[in-house]
Amino acid sequence: MDSKQFKEAATSAIDEIVNYYDTIENRRVVSNVEPGYLRKILPSGPPEEGEAWADIQADIETKIMPGLTHWQSPNFMAFFPASSSFPGMLGELYSAAFTAPAFNWICSPAVTELETIVLDWLAKLLNLPECYLSTTHGGGVIQGSASEAIVTVMVAARDKYLRETTSHLSGLELEDSIAHKRSKLVALGSEAAHSATQKAAQIAGVRFRSIPVSKESNFALTGEALEETLKQCKAEGLEPFFLTTTLGTTATCAVDDFAAVASVLAKHAPPNVPGEIWVHVDAAYAGAALVCPEYQHLTASFEHFHSFDMNMHKWLLTNFDASCLFVRRRKDLIDALSVMPSYLRNEFSDSGLVTDYRDWQIPLGRRFRSLKIWFVLRTYGVKGLQAHIRKHIKLGEVFADLIKTRPDLFTILSGPAFALTVFTIVPKTAGKEAQDQISKEVYELVNKRGEIFITSSVIAGIYALRVVSSNPLAEEQFLRKAFRILVETTEEVRDGKVITKENSI
Amino acid sequence: MDSKQFKEAATSAIDEIVNYYDTIENRRVVSNVEPGYLRKILPSGPPEEGEAWADIQADIETKIMPGLTHWQSPNFMAFFPASSSFPGMLGELYSAAFTAPAFNWICSPAVTELETIVLDWLAKLLNLPECYLSTTHGGGVIQGSASEAIVTVMVAARDKYLRETTSHLSGLELEDSIAHKRSKLVALGSEAAHSATQKAAQIAGVRFRSIPVSKESNFALTGEALEETLKQCKAEGLEPFFLTTTLGTTATCAVDDFAAVASVLAKHAPPNVPGEIWVHVDAAYAGAALVCPEYQHLTASFEHFHSFDMNMHKWLLTNFDASCLFVRRRKDLIDALSVMPSYLRNEFSDSGLVTDYRDWQIPLGRRFRSLKIWFVLRTYGVKGLQAHIRKHIKLGEVFADLIKTRPDLFTILSGPAFALTVFTIVPKTAGKEAQDQISKEVYELVNKRGEIFITSSVIAGIYALRVVSSNPLAEEQFLRKAFRILVETTEEVRDGKVITKENSI
């Protein structure tokens, strides 16, 4: 494909993408292909001779589109959004054109420096304490996902804990102590924390223990529950070294009691003392709301914590992946993750004047992801981003208010919080089992029909439905439509009169 | 930015990218900005009001370009290439448009299914044994980088080893045994293996030991050296559980003696028996050459190994990132990396009929990276990819032949192998110290002048220069130019007549 062919191909691709976005609401939001659909319609190997772009492009609509679940559709109200935007796409395009696995500063200084700068912009925009800025001892780094970020900081926390708590030992005694401690290390997170913490513990080779939450505290981690778990761990000879605390849990967007967490830890594992517990704030989704002053009080305790992560690729108009991780002490990452073979040595790295982000992450190579963040921040501006968040918060309230108009059908379990409403279906005959059963039936029927796509979750044992109104294309009409579908489907299921209208759109 | 504005912006971006590629050879290949250059010319925060695309785009040429090291320039002969291509960029563009962190099959079935299919295509194209296909017990998965792939399989190997060697125990005895074994686990790789294995060991919390290589065996891992290390480990009470073996080492593109590795392991840690050593083949760069039948004999022993990884983003025309990891038993990955909270449950995953790639990797979410691989394989076709590789192999021979014409200035240390030539500079007065010194001086002066960009490496204690001729835009004229520059610079340095011509282009 030469320059001329690329221009034609790209123009055609841009047209197709624009048309896709302009008409996306007409597509069935969740794919209804059967597992294995694609293998049946693709050849068993690559072609011997190259093919023309027109032939390749034609397959996108006919073969790929049927298998897509359209996360950008305004009818997508599942999980959390994965918001894309046009400036984000332009960033991705330039990033591909400038391809460079910029593991060192000299590999492409702009890749490193723009990342440092836009992450400092973002830290200020989100009202993070100054200690998270690169101009102090901290700084930000773009990771692929919030789960990758958690593994990264957990490994740093593990090695820091082991190093600091055994620094008085040497030789065989040191080795034995580390071996023993390794087997006793435990990472903590509330029951409502994302499963990424448990997975990170598996990867780091440490234990995981979850701290119970309850409806009474709106599914948020409390100081009491943390204290209780710390005591239990101690009684069992375990050594807690890491805690994930969440700003906007996956199931209900609960916000943990950060002040209480800081206060309990100050008592049980004082900061800046060997044995301190690394506290990571997982704000993957709801952290985006911190661009609005009315949410910025939530960061008040963060100066006592160690790391913070927010995904611009969820609610802040930047296509996946753009997980923004901030640490208070970059040295902790570098101590754990730096390896320096001769072919990576260079005068700039040796000088200590530059940042080599490979030491802040698991992979060596990295993409130029700060470009898209830069484009998004500049295209929308601070006011544009605030308006974007506030619109969705408002839509969440509209939806929750609609749900409240039908107490005969729905009970709100939680929210609206950060544009998420969580509710259960009222069964014909009261009882938890009946409630779980009908909630599940309604959920499954709604998704099977595919006019909207929502998720369910089991929260403190209760089966509930989640509707998120923070899709970039979300509008009141779509939330009203979702409400109508939920009412109709619930009435059908309650009355045992399910109408077969599969694949209706 | 609405549809219309995006069309205009994208058209303008495409024009800029085409122009960038058409004139890239005229740019200084390695950036010569000073550390911190960008902060001086950017504002200290994002704008309050959104900006127009024209203003943003203008900053790319004026502010970003000076800080780029142009990996796509034909004058880039450093590290290994990070090859981009127009079809790859189109894939990235669609991937951004279809943004979906497709962690489950139902999140976007096409994302999962296309990945399985193109990785099966690739496995066959590379002549991997059938056990690495998804149609058997294996399969491929796209990772971000070869280093990420190594962490992923090392964690799987660690957990498999611990599980299988302690399966006869229970209770406290099991816990003690695992704690003890954890402290004794050691991952192996040759001295010439990429530092990613050492870093993976740090992340997985295990020891790392490197196996010596020597010039006599052309810096490849031998069976004897492996056997010796295994015996030493045993004598020290260590438990080797993982070995990285390399097809194309970073420094010299050495190929380990796979048959000998298989044979030594069959004796010391028999496969399919508890305590077997997981063998990972790191073919990050040179694995691309397996698309040519003349290299396919190299895969003969891979049926005895456990995983294989090759980066399409190095030498196979796909922009970073596209690291293709294949495993012989996908169950090993899933056993180590699966976590299943309620909000990720769905009927499709529960059915076992679909692949959930989140269980094959560290992160949860994932991009639609198979699109660009699909576009590249189809645009070039098998023959096009073979021609691409063979052209570069040939250019490597041309360059090495040039180097050989000046034995008074250069001594080839290794190669040409897979388009890489490694050589040292002949000092005026013989001696290792003088040779290392002048090699370093020539290397630094060449890169400082920035007409070409090359890398150096220390190989078995010898300081050497590396020239790689596998850049997508590589042509004989650029290799001849590189040779001329090396001759002139060497003569200047040898004669102590370094001319100041910094920033000459």
From TrEMBL, chains A, B:
Lyase is among the record's keywords: yes
GO biological process, one term: carboxylic acid metabolic process
Positions where N6-(pyridoxal phosphate)lysine occurs in the chain: 314
Cofactor requirement: pyridoxal 5'-phosphate
GO cellular component, one term: cytoplasm
Superkingdom of this protein's organism: Eukaryota
Homology family: Belongs to the group II decarboxylase family.
Protein name: Aromatic-L-amino-acid decarboxylase
